[in-house]
Design a protein that fits this description.
six-stranded antiparallel barrel, globular
């Protein structure tokens, strides 16, 4: 298993890749601004986009530590990441765009405080994936939330015209 260290947190530095992350869980609950990922995978997938095209794994426990200790401008504590939660529910796939803060990992249960950007504010389901945005640039056009905003703007423009 490869290990990503602090280098993936510094993706906004010149000539350094920008890392995105994926966390998978057996089930999920979202309620009252709290996201609970049950049966969280002990590893978090890390990857970059073009031109670097790198991939690696980091321990989910280490990933949670990205919120503390580093007061740099690109730390998750200073600049919380946006994410898209993709969940299988009884009604099919359900996606929610949110901002993640205050992670807490106990055993195989990972909790985040969240702010909903778009989507349902309450849901439960199985087989969940959390796609976490580029470090340090959550509002970029290529970010998860950036794509959601751009899609919404285009939809609104099409309806308005």
């Amino acid at each position: 298993m490869l290990s990503i260290t602090a280098s993936c947190k510094k993706g906004v530095e010149a000539n350094e890749p920008e890392w995105l992350f994926v966390q998978n869980a057996e089930s999920v609950a979202l309620n009252d601004g709290v996201l609970i990922l049950n049966g969280i995978n002990p590893t978090t997938v890390c990857f970059t986009d073009r031109p670097e095209r790198m991939a690696a794994l980091t321990a989910t426990e280490k990933f949670v530590s990205f919120w503390t200790g580093d007061k740099a401008k690109d730390s998750f504590e200073k600049d919380p990441p946006n994410a898209t939660l993709s969940v299988m529910t009884d009604d099919g796939a359900n996606d929610v765009v949110l901002t993640l803060t205050n992670p807490s990992l106990k055993g195989d249960i990972l909790k985040y405080d969240v702010t909903i950007i778009e989507g349902d504010n309450q849901l439960e389901g199985a087989a969940a994936s959390l796609f976490i945005d580029v470090i340090g640039r959550p509002l970029t056009p290529v970010s998860v939330a950036g794509v959601a905003r751009r899609t919404t703007r285009r939809t609104v423009r099409r309806i308005a015209y």
